[in-house]
Structure formats: C-alpha cells, structure tokens
Design brief:
This protein is of the alpha/beta class and 183 residues long. The chain has one domain. 42% of the residues lie in helices and 15% in strands. The protein has eight helices and six strands, in the order αβαββαααβαβαβα. The chain has a six-stranded parallel sheet with strand order 1-2-3-4-5-6. α5 crosses α6. The longest helix is centred in the C-terminal third of the chain and has 18 residues. The radius of gyration is 17 Å and the shape is globular.
Length: 183
C-alpha cells in the first residue's frame, strides 16, 4: 500500500491512537513519512520497536522499546548463521539512550527466568541515567505462547517487578486469542 492509501485506511476508523509495529517498523520504507502523516491529522502515535535503529526525529508520542534479551536468541539448529546476526544486533544501548532521551518512552522486557534480571539491570546501567526516565516505565512480561506457560511464569515476573519497582505487563492477546498471527 502507498502511504496515502494507509493514511486513508486509518482515517476510516474512529480512533485517536495508532501503533506502528510489526517486526521492526523502523526499517520499513516510508515509516517517517507515515508517522508524520498520522501526526499531521492528530493521531497519537506509539512506535513499538526493538530500539536497534535510531529514531532520527520520527513523529512519535510514545516509544515502546522492547530490547531483546539473550532469551530471544534462537539456537543454532533452528537459526543457523542467522543466530550470530541476531546476537550481534539485538542490543544497542546508544540507540536505546537516544530514544529515551528524545521521546516519552517505556522499556518492555520479555522474561523467561530469574536469570534474565541481571541482564536487564546490566542494560539499564549501560544506557545510563536519563533524567526524564524512571523505573516505573520499565515493564516486564512473562515469556510464553500459551496460557499455561504465562500463568506459570507470571508469579516470578510479578516478584521481580515488586523487588525492582517495575510494572507487570500481562500478555493479554495470548490469553484472549492464543498464539495467533495478527494479535
């Protein structure tokens, strides 16, 4: 679709909030023009990104940053040589810092085990202090693609949130719709 067609399609809905997401939206051709067009007609724009690409002045009201932890790296049997590419590119502290310093933002982490916490703390330390960013803007969500796994990991994630002052983010789309495309 052209940017004009996308803008027309969005205008057909009675909504104020628009989320730009899907894989990594910041590498999509025309993303800056799309965000500017949405902003020009009064939409609140949330960009969900892995924060590996600099924002470069994109129109954005809420940057929802989801840096990938080590638990996201596929094993060699599944991914082959793509594994090394993923591992080398998954964390960009300087890019995360730029997003946090430039936009209203939140950090979201998918947690699968207690051992994820030191990595989260290490990344926060690498990013450094951003005066406008506080720990209550860090969200942890349990990793899982089915309700049983989410419920099993939920208490662990809740404890981590309580201990460090983070927020808990349920994966409501999986509870409601299962692990389906488009949710």
């Amino acid at each position: 679709m052209t940017i004009t067609a996308i803008l027309q399609q969005v205008q057909a809905y009675e909504c104020r909030h628009v989320v730009l997401t899907g894989g990594e939206p910041m590498i999509a051709s025309g993303i800056h023009e799309l965000a500017a067009g949405l902003h020009a007609v009064g939409h609140h724009i949330t960009i969900e990104t892995a924060a590996t690409v600099v924002p470069n002045g994109i129109a954005c009201d809420l940057a929802s940053l989801s840096p990938k932890l080590a638990n996201s790296t596929p094993d060699t049997e599944q991914a082959g040589p793509w594994r090394e590419r993923h591992e080398a590119a998954r964390l960009k502290p300087d890019v995360i810092r730029e997003w946090l310093a430039s936009y209203s933002a939140q950090l979201k982490f998918v947690v699968s085990q207690t051992e994820d916490q030191p990595e989260i703390q290490g990344l926060i330390a690498k990013v450094g202090t951003i005066p406008s960013f506080t720990h209550d803007r860090i969200l942890l969500m349990p990793e899982g693609t089915d309700v049983e796994t989410l419920r099993a990991r939920g208490p662990l994630v809740a404890e981590m949130c309580l201990e460090y002052g983070f927020r808990y983010a349920p994966r409501l789309q999986i509870e409601l719709f299962g692990n389906t495309r488009g949710t």
